Amino acid sequence: MEYLKLLGIVIIVLGFAFKWDTVAVVVIAALVTGLFSGMDILTLLTTLGQSFVQNRVVSLFFLTLPMIGLVESHGLKEVAVNGIQKLKTLTASRILNLYLIVRELGGVFGISLSGQVQFVRPLITPMVTAAAEVKRPLTAKDLDEIKGRSAAVDNFGNFFAQNLFVASGGVLLIVSTMDSLKHPVTGTQIVLYTVPIAVVTLITVALYNVWFDRRFKAPKKG
Amino acid sequence: MAQLGNILLTVMYCLIGFLLAIAGIESIKAKDNPAHIGTGIFWLLLAVVFAFGTLIPYAVTGGIIVIIGILALFKQIQVGKIAPVDPKFAATAAKRIGGWVFFPSVVLAIVSIGIAQVKSLGPQAGQVGIGIGAAVSLIVAILLTRAPVKMLYNDSQRLVRSVGSAGVLPQLLATLGAVFTAAGVGTLTAKLIANVFPAGNQFLGVVLYCVAMALFTAIMGNAFAAFAVITAAIGIPFVVAQGANPAVVAAMGMTSGYCGTLLTPMAANFNSLPVALLEMHDKMGVIKQQAPIAVFLLLIQIVMMYVLAF
Fold this sequence. Notes:
The complex is a heterodimer.
Chain A: H1 7-17, H2 22-36, H3 41-54, H4 65-73, H5 76-85, H6 92-108, H7 115-132, H8 140-161, H9 169-180, H10 187-213
Helix pairs in contact in A: 1-2, 2-3, 5-7, 6-7, 6-8, 6-10, 7-8, 8-10
Chain B: H1 2-29, H2 36-52, H3 58-73, H4 87-97, H5 103-116, H6 125-145, H7 149-163, H8 169-183, H9 185-196, H10 202-220, H11 223-239, H12 246-263, H13 268-271, H14 273-277, H15 285-309
C-alpha cells in the first residue's frame, strides 16, 4: 500500500490542528512515514539522524541569543517604549503606522519582540484609544475594533518583515528545506525576494489604517 | 577557503552545543519546574548532537531524536518559570545607554549580510556570516553594556531556556521534509494531484501552490509545518519543475502561508492571545481586522510570484 506513507501528512495536519505537542507530532510523523515507505528501523534512524545533523543550520539563530539577552536586560524594551510615547498628539492611524514601521524595521534587524504582550497591550492600544476619542465618545464596538486593529497591525508588521533578516527562523528553514528538496537557494536571495511583499504590506496596511480614521470623525451636525 | 567555511561552521555548532549545555544544566537546577529533569535531558541531548554532529553515528542521533519525541509526548519538556528581566535595572540601563541599545542588532544584520557576500567562503558563506555576525555583535553588546560574565551567562541561559522546545521545531520540520523526500512523499502526492489538476500550466501551478500554502497553514496554524509539506508536494512539481526561480517560489510561498496564519483561530499565539490579553468581546475580532488584508496580500503574491519567477 503505497498510499500509507501519506499517513505522515495526515498526522502533521491533525496533530497541529488538535494542538498536540508539536515536537512529538513531528517525530511521530517522520517515523510513520519512514516505516510505511518500507525502511527498516536502522535505515529509518540513520535517515532521521543524518537529516537532523545536516539541518543543524536551521538552528543557527541560537548563536544570536546571548547578544539579544544582554540588550534586553539593558533596557531594549524601555528605550523603544520611551520613543513611541513621545508621539502623544497623533491621530489613530499615525500611531498605528509608526508602530508598523517600527515592527518592520525590527524585522530587518532580527529584533523579534513579543509585540502583543510588550507593546500592543500596554502601549499601542491605550494610545490609539486616546487619539480616537478626541472627536467623539467611543462605543463598546469601537473599542473592540481598536483593540483588534492594534493586534492586527502587530501581526502584519511581524509576519511580512521577519524574513528580511538572514538569520531568522523562517529564512533558515526555507534554505534548508529547499536544499533537501534539491533546489538550493541562498538566504540572501530569500531576503531579496521578501522585499516586495514587505513593501506592499507596508503601503496597503498604511492606507487601511488611514481609512480606519474616518470612523472616528466628529458626528455631523444637525 | 571553502575549507575555512566548513571549519568555522563546525566551530559555530560547537558553540551552540555549549549554549544548549548551559541551558540544560540550569534547567535541571530549576527544581520548581515539575519536568526539570526531562527538560534538562532534552537540552543536554541536543547539546551533544550539535557539538559532536557528524562524529556520532547517524543511527544513534536518530535514536536521540526518538527519545526527545518520547520526552515531548509525555510532557517532560517544559519551559517552567524563568526569572524575568529586572525592570529597575533595565530602566536605569536604558537611561545610560539610550538609543545605542539597538546598535548590536544593527551590527548583527550588517555583518551577517556582509560576510555572506564573501564568495571565497564557498556555499557556507551565508551561514558563516550569521555566526561571525553573532560573535561581533555580542562583543559590541558587552562593550556597550559593560556587563560582567555572570550576567552574560545568566541572560544567555534565560533566553535559550525561554525559547524552549519550540526553538528546535524549525530544524525538526526541515528534518521531516528530508524524510518525506527520502520516502518519496512529494512524488506520490504530485502524482495524485496530477490526476485531478492540469499539470503544465505555469499560472495555475502558482495559484495552486499559494492557495494550498495559505489553506494548510490555516488548518495547521503553523506556516513552517505547511511549508515543509506543501513545497515538497506541490511547490516543486507544479511550479519549480516548470522552470520557476526556486528562490522566488520559496520566499513568496512562505509568506502566502502567513496569509493563512492571519485567517485562522488555530494560530492561537497571534489571533487568540490578543483577544484575551486585550479583553475583547469579539473572539474573532483580530481575525476580522486581518481578513481583508490577508486575502488581498495572497492575491498580490500569486501575481508577483508568477511575474517574478518565470
